[in-house]
Design goal:
- This protein is of the alpha+beta class.
- Helix content is 42%, strand content 23%.
- It contains 27 helices and 31 strands.
- The strands form five sheets. Strands 13, 14, 15, 16, 17, 18 and 19 form a seven-stranded antiparallel sheet that branches. Strands 20, 21, 22, 23, 24, 25 and 26 form a seven-stranded mixed sheet that branches.
- Strand 11 and strand 12 form a beta hairpin.
- It starts with 5 loop residues before the first helix and ends with a helix.
Amino acid sequence: MPELTSSSAERWNEADRLDALVQAGVLDTPPEQAFDDIVMLVKTICQTPIALVSLVDADRQWFKAKTGTDAQETPIETSVCALAIQGEGLFEIRDLAQDPRTAGMSLVRDDPHIRFYAGVPLVTAKGLPLGSLCAIDIKPRPEGLNQTQRIALEALARQTIAQIEINALFRQREVSLSASQGIGTWDWDLRRDRVVADERFARIYGVDPARAAAGAPISSFFTRVHPDDLPRLEQEIAHTIRTGDPFNTEYRLIREDGASQWLVAQGRPMLDIDGTAIRFPGVSFDVTERKSAEARANALLELSDRIRDIADTAEIAFIASEILGKTLGVSRAGYGTIDPVAETIEIERDWNAPGVKSLAGVLNFRDYGSYIETLKRGETVVIPDARLDQRTRDNAAALEAITARAFVNMPLTEQGGFVALVYLNNARTRQWSTAELGFMREVAERVRSATERRRAEQELAELNASLEAEVERRTADLMDMEEQLRQSQKMEAVGQLTGGLAHDFNNMLTGISGALEMIQIRIQQGRIGELERYATAARGAASRAAALTHRLLAFSRRQTLDPRPTDVNRLVAGMEEIVRRTVGPAIIVETVQAAGLWSTLVDQNQLENALLNLVINARDAMPDGGRITIETANKWLDTRAARERDLAEGQYLSLCVSDTGCGMTPEVQARAFDPFFTTKPLGEGTGLGLSMIYGFVRQSGGQARVYSEPGQGTTMCLYFPRFYGEAERDEDTHSSQGMPRMEGNQTVLVVDDEPTIRMLIGEVLEEMGCATIEAADGATALQLLQSDARIDLLVTDIGLPGPMNGRQVADAARALRPDLGVLIITGYAENAVVGNGPLEPGMELVTKPFAMETFGARVRDMLAR
């Protein structure tokens, strides 16, 4: 074969081209009238003595059709077509004897002494040339082909390759045709609008086979096309006829029983000289099984998505019925509860196809046949035709009256009892496949699992509602729920936590109430000298209760923080003495503080608690003594380092606590920050400490990480974002001897819905020499703010009754009086209102419960500005 040019080598590979020629199945085949007609047209139009459909093999060129020569093939060495296929479009040599590429060829030099060649490559849809359609003359043609001849030759070349590919398509499909039911071929004469089809094709489309064999209009084959698919099918057919592009589409037919049948149709139109489609042959084959399997798989995904967040079990059942009915194309689908004694089914809501009436209500099985006995045995009842089944033929009319000539009843059992039923009804006879029944069973199982889960969740919610009233009973019920929900360890920890909280709070409340009772008794006795001792005891118990509340909020990561610019080195130094006392003399404590440590914005009290908690954990890991190192450092995290710590890239400071204790296994490290997880013995820890630290650090914009090896010790590191500013200096100027007295006659507006708190705050302010205006809700406060009353400071609780919360009151106050100071007080997690970041200038926060001295000092500072 002549050497490939670089351009042709880039377009296709010779091995691929030869493989495509073999796959076409056209080499060494008998003559065909369609190809013979084409070469006769070429000879006539181009006015040449010779015309060929030449296929270029590895060592020869073989003529599928020829006129003007008796040769069937020639060696590749003398093939001008082998040159033609290397180019694109029309290839023309006007004098073969003068062209150096062809002058030495035997067909040029010897008989038949060809001198002129014009050929168009026969290129497949994949761009691989199989040969050429050529016109050959024994005389040179200096003028070449005229424009009309060129256009005709190119059009006939397209017709030739289309015929080759269609023939190949028919041959490839023949194997499938012989092995598959419901597959057929067609040939559509577009000019006469006559479709000639084989018997299989005709029966699929509901056309009489004799009529299809003689030729019927294309509209005859559209009567069974699904109405939703027909417009698209007609558009795709029109596009193929207009452009000559290959035709490949999928659509549905409606079978006699009303079920859908999926077909794939493939073909390619044949064009005349001017490019107009004149014939449209092709094949159709059944892909219903594949499409049905895809539809069932997609339906199961849809079912999972739609019922995931639905709590109403009746709604879950209806969604499943709808998906069942639409996927399987039946008349009705539904769920019902069964009374096996009365032999009735109660249907709350079912899915029905358009025009089909609901069966909602109570039905008696015996009114429709004797198959109830089969259902009681837990067996599925499958009826393709109620008129033919011996269990239903006497009641077939009643079944047809409810659109159930064919039906499936699938029993659902619980604890061995027949309690519910999922059913499918169809107005026409229908054969129910094994795949359809399996799909129905899968849907039923998913619905049963979802409803049981919702039922369990509802029971759990009811148990949670009675938590405060009956802690012990709730714990026992939660243990029962653990087995149903497979979360026994987590629920056991919840039970332990609530029991511990009840115990701790009862102790604290006993201390508070007992101390107050003794104060009242001593006052009645006139023994006022002992009051301070009881007041101190009550305040201590209240402080412990407040600390426990903050620990719980930290665990839930919803505590109200009071972040301030903080020098962590100064904080660590201030805690060094208490740390040493906490760990005891057997453990050496070492601090390593980085010079020039950056500041961070953090709640100082919470950071102190976190550090002390980490130190205690380190102490517990070294029962025989060891070393604890507290280290601070500046960290600049690049993209990789930040990603490893689940942080944004930037500057951070770290606070790490290291010990030389027993260390952790990788499994323990992975769960170190999980709520309720602890390695301590039962009763010595709830597994909340590290979780609360993690919640606080994450709420502060940072991250907590653990590094440990068994036997080598553990390092716990807390990372906090750098604060670009100076840390606050510690100032303890507030006296503990009474309230700070104010100069002047300032007025404070106090907004709180709790009268006791308003009373206490009012007395504190009165003690300080301030006038007080009180409001129990936001609306009243807003009226006062809009008045001419003098107000020097606004003190407001966040949680207020009515339409305005405390933050909205504060915002309204700042809008009405821009320079007004605002002190926000809150007793629970209000981050959604207050936020975790710094408050606006002139606004501060104090968390309940607070010492009145602390409150007074904060008021004094704000009024003094």
